[in-house]
């Protein structure tokens, strides 16, 4: 009969794990948090990336786009012959003011003509439910899903619209989505599904209503494989310039795609940096624990080596301890991350309208999770084990030599008599082993820093809201005209009911060049005296726009490599299309967008034109808002309106909401990790000082005094860790601020006092709970058993 025998070292491993199950579970929890965050964020990123690629390919999302005033359809044949052009489509697009049932203020709609042949062409629609509009029927439309959901619209409902100066009633016959409008953005930098939507109409019907038969004003183009987008765009710009084109642009500059790309980049960074921080803590914890364990078990290690076990066998024994605890956390973390990933995917599906968006855990992510966890364990364990394995067996059989007493700072200053004996013993214990004390302080500092990192996103969001939507933007309503108007017409808006103040603004689409770099943007032209839209410096003082210069945002200047005093070439994309050299007068830091600013008179002087306005900022009396909105719905010259509070609401519902969800999960994980670090630190201290504490009990010290010595040392280390943890957390927050900032939205480095205080509070609460558990074990300390063994 054969008996299954467990190897000796493996039996010892099982006993060690069981005896140290509390610390093993604490390590597993930290690993679980790191792996779960990696699986959740990485899996969500992969799911969105796969859904995006499939959606773009299946529904023929274009590679190049261009807008013109009006061009003949015969031009499409010439464009089709461009080298690199695979498929070309011209269509009609129009911005209309909408009267949506249940919405007091006017909404904006982008009317887009459908291909003449249903199911063909580029940027195809996917009908969620309903049907396509009938051919030639102007009153039937498809409505984008996000707009329909925000306004509770269904097939059969009607919407009022002003099309080419005429009031029309549009009948909804279907709800649809398109890869071109995964994020529906117009005017503001963020989607506002309540007040902006996309509607698709029959091509013949829309072109007839706009008097654009046999013409188009919007162009989409798919490139041939390996074709150069820049070369095609250059040819398009030359051909379409006479037709009022503002310049063709590639897919990466398309608003919806750009917004989604920014979100994907942030998710990718979060799924890499944050788990890396967590698993770095894991490696440190394992190193710290095994360093203490191997020190305590040095006699056992020596005995094993004297019996013939090689350094490799003994080292692998302790590496197995690390791998066992880490793999336990890894398996649970993969399961937890998968569950959280499905929840996050359902939330993303509400923001990003794909035909299908489901979380799927790839084999690559699972393998990466296991490898990362194992490497963290091996790295942390190897550093600790090698220190003891270098000792000869005969030397390791002896316990560490007791520390020699040397007068410390207290004795040298003659203060020892003024300090109680228990306190002196605590301070001497820390002074004798400064490296171990430093490692403990570092571990506790990491706990504080993780909490700071977890909460700082809330501070950054609050700062963006305060700075951008409260301090800089003080208007209630932004009105955009369908074409540039005389500035006097804009100022006449003051006569509308409830309007308290009007500040006209202009804008000019341009390409700004500096040396070999260039970028398209919009110059916002503001009046000299203004209160509703302020440009602020780093101290939040209003910046006066120069009479003959330009002001750039910091992000824009970084893209071009421009400094204050440099001269840039401004190429205007409409009108006479002139190019002018302009001096950069100032650079300001704004968290949203990459705009540029000029004085409205300076811009008109540069263009050698009269002062015109493309819109106006309005301050409105809340008591007369409804009357104003009713009036604005009837003004054909207005193409769209943006409400400041609505823009803020949109901001909170997109970027902010996604960040908040990720941050809440991060905070929960950080709390769990903090508890694990604090408990391990206290439990290791008890193992190290068990013999000393038992000896003190024999010498007559009470249990309370013995416990006070042990926990007092931990209290000193905890207090010392607080400032270092706050500094480390601030540094990590700064790193994330840089890595997560994108062109569309930058995250400022702002950490509030409340964040530091709450992080410290979590550390202290964790320390108290860990102290209570350790105190209980001190009370149950068996002096005889402890003095028999080094363990």
UniProtKB/TrEMBL annotation:
Organism per entry: Keguizhuia sedimenti
Q: Name one Pfam family in it.
A: FtsX
Q: Which InterPro entries match?
A: ABC3_permease_C, Lipoprotein-release_system
Q: What is this protein called?
A: FtsX-like permease family protein
Q: What is the membrane topology here?
A: Multi-pass membrane protein
Task: Tell where it localizes.
Answer: Cell membrane
Cite the ABC3 transporter permease C-terminal domain residue spans from the record.
273-392, 665-778
Keywords, ordered alphabetically: Cell membrane, Membrane, Transmembrane, Transmembrane helix
Source superkingdom: Bacteria
Q: Which family does the entry's similarity section mention?
A: Belongs to the ABC-4 integral membrane protein family. LolC/E subfamily.
Q: Which residues cross the membrane?
A: 21-41, 273-291, 321-341, 361-385, 435-458, 664-686, 707-736, 756-775
Q: Which PANTHER family match?
A: LIPOPROTEIN-RELEASING SYSTEM TRANSMEMBRANE PROTEIN LOLE
């Amino acid at each position: 009969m054969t008996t299954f025998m467990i190897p000796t070292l493996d039996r010892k491993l099982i006993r060690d794990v069981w005896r140290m199950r509390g610390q093993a579970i604490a390590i597993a929890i930290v690993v679980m948090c790191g792996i779960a965050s990696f699986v959740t964020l990485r899996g969500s990123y992969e799911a969105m990336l796969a859904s995006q690629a499939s959606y773009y390919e299946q529904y023929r999302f274009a590679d190049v786009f261009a807008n013109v005033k009006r061009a003949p359809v015969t031009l499409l044949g010439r464009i089709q012959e461009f080298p690199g052009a695979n498929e070309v489509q011209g269509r009609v697009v129009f911005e209309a003011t909408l009267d949506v049932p249940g919405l007091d203020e006017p909404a904006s709609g982008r009317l887009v003509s459908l291909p003449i042949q249903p199911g063909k062409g580029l940027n195809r629609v996917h009908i969620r439910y309903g049907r396509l509009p009938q051919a030639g029927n102007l009153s039937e439309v498809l409505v984008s899903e996000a707009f329909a959901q925000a306004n509770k619209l269904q097939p059969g409902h009607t919407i009022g619209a002003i099309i080419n100066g005429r009031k029309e009633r549009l009948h909804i016959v279907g709800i649809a989505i398109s890869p071109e409008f995964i994020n529906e953005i117009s005017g503001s930098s963020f989607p506002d599904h309540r007040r902006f939507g996309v509607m698709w109409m029959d091509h013949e019907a829309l072109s007839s209503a706009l008097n654009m038969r046999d013409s188009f004003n919007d162009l989409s183009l798919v490139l041939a494989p390996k074709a150069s987008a820049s070369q095609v765009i250059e040819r398009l710009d030359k051909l379409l310039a006479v037709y009022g084109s503002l310049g063709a642009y590639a897919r990466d500059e398309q608003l919806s795609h750009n917004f989604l790309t920014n979100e994907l980049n942030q998710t990718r960074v979060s799924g890499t940096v944050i788990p890396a921080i967590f698993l770095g803590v894991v490696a440190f914890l394992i190193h710290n624990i095994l360093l203490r364990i191997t020190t305590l078990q040095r006699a056992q290690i020596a005995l094993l080596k004297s019996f013939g076990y090689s350094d490799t066998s003994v080292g692998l024994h302790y590496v197995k301890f690390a791998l066992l605890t880490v793999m336990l956390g890894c398996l649970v973390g993969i399961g937890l991350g998968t569950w959280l990933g499905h929840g996050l995917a359902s939330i993303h599906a509400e923001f990003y309208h794909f035909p299908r968006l489901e979380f799927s855990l790839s084999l690559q992510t699972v393998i990466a999770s296991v490898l990362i966890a194992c490497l963290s364990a091996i790295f942390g364990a190897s550093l600790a084990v090698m220190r003891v394995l270098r000792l000869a067996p005969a030397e390791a059989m002896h316990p560490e030599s007791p520390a020699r007493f040397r007068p410390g700072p207290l004795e040298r200053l003659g203060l020892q008599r003024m300090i109680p004996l228990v306190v002196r013993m605590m301070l001497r214990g820390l002074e004798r082993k400064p490296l171990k004390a430093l490692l403990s302080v570092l571990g506790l500092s990491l706990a504080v820093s993780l909490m700071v990192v977890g909460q700082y996103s809330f501070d950054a969001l609050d700062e963006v809201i305060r700075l951008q939507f409260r301090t800089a933007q003080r208007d209630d309503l932004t009105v955009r005209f369908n074409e540039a108007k005389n500035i006097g017409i804009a100022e006449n808006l003051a006569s509308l009911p409830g309007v308290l103040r009007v500040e006209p603004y202009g804008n000019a689409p341009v390409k700004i060049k500096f040396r070999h770099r260039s970028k398209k943007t919009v110059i916002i032209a503001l009046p000299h005296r203004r209160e509703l839209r302020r440009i602020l410096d780093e101290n939040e003082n209003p910046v006066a726009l120069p009479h003959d210069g330009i002001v750039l945002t910091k992000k824009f200047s970084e893209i071009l490599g421009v400094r204050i005093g440099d001269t840039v070439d401004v190429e205007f994309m409409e009108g006479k299309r002139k190019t002018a050299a302009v001096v950069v007068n100032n650079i300001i830091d704004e968290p949203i967008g990459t705009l540029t600013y000029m004085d409205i008179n300076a811009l008109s002087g540069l263009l050698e034109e009269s002062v015109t306005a493309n819109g106006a900022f309005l301050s409105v009396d809340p008591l007369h808002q409804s009357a104003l909105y009713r009036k604005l719905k009837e003004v054909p010259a207005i193409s769209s309106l943006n409400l400041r509070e609505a823009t803020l609401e949109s901001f909170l519902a997109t970027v902010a909401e996604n960040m908040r969800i990720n941050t809440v999960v991060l905070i929960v994980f950080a709390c769990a990790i903090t508890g694990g670090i604090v408990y391990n630190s206290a439990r290791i201290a008890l193992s190290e000082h068990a013999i000393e504490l038992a000896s003190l009990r024999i010498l007559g010290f009470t249990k309370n005094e013995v416990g006070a010595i042990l926990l007092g040392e931990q209290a000193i280390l905890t207090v010392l860790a607080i400032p270092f943890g706050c500094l480390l957390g601030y540094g990590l927050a700064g790193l994330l601020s840089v890595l997560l900032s994108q062109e569309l939205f930058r995250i400022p480095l702002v950490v509030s006092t409340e964040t530091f205080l709450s992080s410290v509070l979590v550390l202290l609460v964790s320390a108290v709970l860990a102290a209570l558990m350790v105190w209980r074990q001190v009370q149950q300390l068996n002096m005889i058993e402890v003095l028999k063994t080094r363990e």
